[in-house]
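Researcher: First entry.
Model:
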Amino acid sequence: MEQGTVTSLLEENGTIKGVQYKTKAGQELKAYAPLTIVCDGCFSNLRRSLCNPKVDVPSCFVGLVLENCQLPFANHGHVILADPSPILCYPISSTEVRCLVDVPGQKLPSIANGEMANYLKTRVAPQLPPQLYDAFISAIDQGKIRTMPNRSMPADPYPTPGALLMGDAFNMRHPLTGGGMTVALSDIVVLRDLLKPLSNLNDAVSLSKYLESFYTLRKPVASTINTLAGALYKVFCASPDQARKEMREACFDYLSLGGVCSAGPVALLSGLNPRPLSLVVHFFAVAIYGVGRLLLPFPSLKRMWIGARLISGASSIIFPIIKAEGVRQMFFPVTVPAYYRAPPAK
């Protein structure tokens, strides 16, 4: 185990041979290995040669730690459907609650000149549960405000001999559903199972060909969680459009029905049901449930029009995300040749 800051990958004839890194003392050193796993996070400066990074920043999180307050439902995470976008609250200790306020777009109110404090007090605080209000105002007054861009990036790798991308350096989704670690740990299990039968990693070209199957085998879990995160964020954002409002309310009420209507989406969220088709079925079940509520007991032309726009809006949310993930890899992975790659001969 060596600790240092990696400054670059060492490449030779298109193959990654290792890394150049800087120690705490400032010494520049090189380390060589037959396989380099690159997992340097969302701000990765090493991924550019290993994938096509199309990073989108739909919003930012403004984070606060609320002290000595009780959540409406103890020991549970809370998603508050606020205007303009959701607020997350969840306990991080017996006395502390982390609050993440989603602010759409990339431009945040300034913390330095007090704009942020004013925005949080006037726009956000009135929408919080009363139990959290005083602790929220107190946290703002203490100035403990942290910000973080929320990034989204589909996995689009360049299979490179000698190297493999993992984690947020490789694939990101909106953190609303907290799916990042689930995807990363699932990817580790897939990679472990692929490497297990190998006793020698030194044939970089054969290994790279074999590890192409990693990108297909990871898809069921990764694409389900990625698509759900992107779709839920868009559904949960406030909108002046009546059809989007109906979709948001239908989603909440569908989950409130209990039984398969809540267990199904929760199994998808947690990675316990890595079936993209189940996700599409539940997503459109929400849309149809929303249309049904509009049309019963007495349909009108206006309600039918809103219902048609609700279905159209649901399609325009989910299909672009599925397209970015890759329809074939998501729904028909067994038709991808890399799915059947055998380990290289010893």
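Researcher: Second entry.
Model:
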Amino acid sequence: MKQFKRGIERDGSGFVVLMAEEAEDMWHIYNLIRVGDVIKASTIRKVVSETSTGTTSSQRVHTMLTVSVESIDFDPGAQELHLKGRNIEENDIVKLGAYHTIDLEPNRKFTLQKTEWDSIDLERLNLSLDPAQAADVAAVVLHEGLANVCLITPAMTLTRAKIDMTIPRKRKGFTSQHEKGLEKFYEAVCVAFMRHVNLQVVKCVIIASRGFVKDAFMQHLIAYADANGKKFTTDQKAKFMLTHSSSGFKHALKEVLETPQVAARLADTKAQGEVKALNQFLELMSTEPDRAFYGYNHVSRANQELAIETLLVADSLFRAQDIETRRKYVKLVESVREQNGKVHIFSSMHVSGEQLAQLTGCAAILRFPMPDLDDEPMSDDE
């Protein structure tokens, strides 16, 4: 996602000027826009004109419209958002109050204005602007002369650097040129790795290559970090995993991630964290039901007793048409975080999110049993 301008006041009102660059960005925008928000974007309107003789002609005209959103339709296949609403700024082509549908798609600039940007909105916005924050797996795929440094988020793979260098071939009596070329190549990959990979955030680093290239690179990386005063700790060294890949091209990463050893190692990353939390909740429901509750009333009551260890929330609840409904879930998330509880926001596009939605979309794992909560009534919706 690209941000051109941001003007959010202290009271939470304000606007941002954005442009989606990837398919993933459209999902973030869908979660940001709600009924009542104001969208300003360039659109195409059909204009019918009549001549003095009574004949009519129509043409499609580009115009800038400002619409108060009344309905939102997201097409994940085509990666398009259809926003229907009334025009609130009159221009030469569209009358004030006339209905129009604005279609948002990747690489189309727009302005989003809200009366209130809450903490969930801002968290989603900042995450979409810097997807590297969500990347908890880094990977370097390489062969002699080519390397790709990538960050892997739950939804996509970002290539942060590509190093492509010509290395002299080994010739009898002239191996020094080959060795110097390799040294220079490894140095360039080390520089790119240290610049783009934050080992404080990343939980696992995959280094994959043919033969012994990965081992030689790992030795260079450790030496480079030592020489630049960024010596790896024992915990950081434990994050590295060396494995085989067919080449240094980015597409080789797919086969690397599918190998059983790598899949097992990645089981604890953010991409799997939500599934793990949901499985733990379902297990507790059968083994320790007094520590696993779902439904807003039960979860809210547990939160009042400072009992929530892990909160599970479906992102569909933050897209509620009713502002008060959204607000109460935002307050719940903020409250649990203030009490050092973990919060997992599940995407309704994932299987785990669909499963959580069947349990009202809101569930909690408690720090201690609360058998009295069963006496608390559930709402009609739940």
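Model: Note on the second entry: The longest helix spans residues 175-196.
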